[in-house]
User: Which sequence fits this backbone?
């Protein structure tokens, strides 16, 4: 059995470290440039809280025995925390806070081939939704509770894939390689469908070791919880599209 | 100047396809939304999952659900875009709206409920009257949608003028 306390601690450390770094960067860059907006700090804090809730504390503890609690944790870790943290624009903050030399290095890394490959919405969707299919339709879910390294790997993957998925669809920060709104919309619909289908599949086919009633509750939570968060992604994508296609002059101005 | 004004007015034609698509997407999304809130959540007639569901039914439902979720929001943004460009045409939008809502309801009622056996409208009742009301309503909506879309097609005259938005 995985030692819950060890796993919680190891998973919590990166989030706490990232939080401290974010606050430090916000304060130090705020002295050189404009003040970094307080609401972005609040978004990053909220994202960190939801991530921590899912990896440590009572919810994480219950998630080991209760599939519905596990699913709530995964909604937080894989969807809500990534969305809130992406809205906090950490890359923009990092580029602002770093010295010119290191900011250039970071910008170069963001333009590198592996990052461009990862931030293709299709790659990000396969990593994110495909990863979930592997987790819940194979023995991986059961094994995750037996091996510490698998537990850590799965949880970090869920968060990172969720984050990459979010920023591959919604461009909030300088994005070197941009894809069209139509392409991103199509991928988003496919990802939504993949998520919804998997939820109902789990409802009907409990993952190994999960009692049927927990699988039903977890499947429904995944379905509706996913919808609730995805509606924000859809709204943001449409809003950006709407703004980008603003007509140059309106008819009333022209006549 | 007079010449320029005329050019401006004639370029102010409604966007035929955008009006139709805006209505279509909103209509599809609206029916899916009513299906979810009224029949799943409020009445509890529809079931989340029915054991008789085929695999293709699960996939079809997944894609329709995802697209309708997207379409509701995208359809409203398209409407806002039409208003912004002052080329919103209510009648053609209604045509698209009824095509989307009637079309999806008919697909749901015939293909998804009956052939793919996703779930039934209601359980432990004689289902026939429910199916009839469901599908006939859908067919009527679809027919009115087709009629309105045909009436507002490009090139058709509208009370003697070719540009329905040419009210200036």
Assistant:
């Amino acid at each position: 059995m995985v030692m819950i306390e060890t796993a919680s601690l190891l998973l919590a450390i990166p989030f706490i470290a990232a939080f401290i770094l974010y606050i430090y960067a916000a304060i130090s860059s705020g002295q050189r440039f404009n003040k970094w907006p307080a609401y972005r700090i609040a978004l990053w804090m909220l994202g960190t809280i939801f991530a921590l809730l899912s990896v440590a504390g009572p919810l994480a503890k219950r998630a080991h025995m209760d599939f519905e609690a596990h699913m709530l944790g995964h909604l937080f870790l894989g969807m809500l925390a990534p969305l809130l943290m992406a809205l906090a624009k950490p890359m923009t903050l990092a580029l602002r806070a770093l010295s010119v030399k290191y900011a250039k290095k970071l910008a170069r890394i963001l333009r590198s081939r592996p990052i461009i490959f990862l931030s293709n919405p299709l790659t990000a969707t396969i990593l994110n939704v495909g990863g979930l299919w592997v987790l819940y339709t194979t023995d991986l879910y059961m094994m995750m509770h037996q091996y510490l390294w698998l537990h850590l790997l799965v949880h970090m993957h869920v968060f990172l894939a969720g984050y990459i998925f979010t920023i591959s669809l919604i461009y909030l920060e300088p994005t070197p390689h941009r894809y069209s709104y139509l392409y991103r919309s199509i991928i988003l619909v496919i990802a939504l469908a993949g998520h919804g289908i998997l939820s109902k599949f789990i409802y009907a086919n409990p993952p190994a070791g999960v009692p049927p009633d927990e699988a039903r509750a977890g499947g429904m939570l995944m379905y509706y919880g996913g919808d609730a968060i995805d509606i924000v992604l859809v709204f943001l994508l449409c809003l950006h599209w709407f703004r980008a296609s603003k007509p140059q002059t309106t008819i009333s101005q022209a006549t | 100047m007079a010449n320029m004004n005329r050019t401006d007015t004639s370029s102010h034609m409604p966007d035929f396809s955008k009006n139709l698509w805006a209505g279509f997407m909103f209509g599809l999304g609206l029916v899916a939304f009513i299906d979810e809130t009224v029949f799943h959540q409020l009445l509890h007639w529809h079931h989340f999952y029915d054991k008789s569901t085929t695999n293709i039914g699960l996939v079809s439902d997944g894609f329709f659900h995802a697209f309708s979720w997207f379409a509701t929001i995208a359809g409203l943004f398209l409407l806002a875009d039409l208003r912004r460009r002052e080329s919103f045409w209510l009648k053609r939008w209604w045509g698209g709206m009824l095509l989307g809502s009637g079309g999806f309801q008919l697909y749901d009622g015939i293909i998804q409920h009956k052939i793919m056996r996703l779930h039934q409208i209601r359980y432990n009742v004689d289902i026939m009257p429910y199916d009839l009301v469901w599908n006939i309503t859908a067919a009527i909506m679809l027919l009115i949608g087709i009629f309105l879309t045909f009436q507002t097609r490009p090139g058709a005259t509208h009370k003697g003028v070719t540009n329905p938005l040419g009210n200036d």
Summary: Chain A has 13 helices and no strands. Chain A has a mean pLDDT of 92.
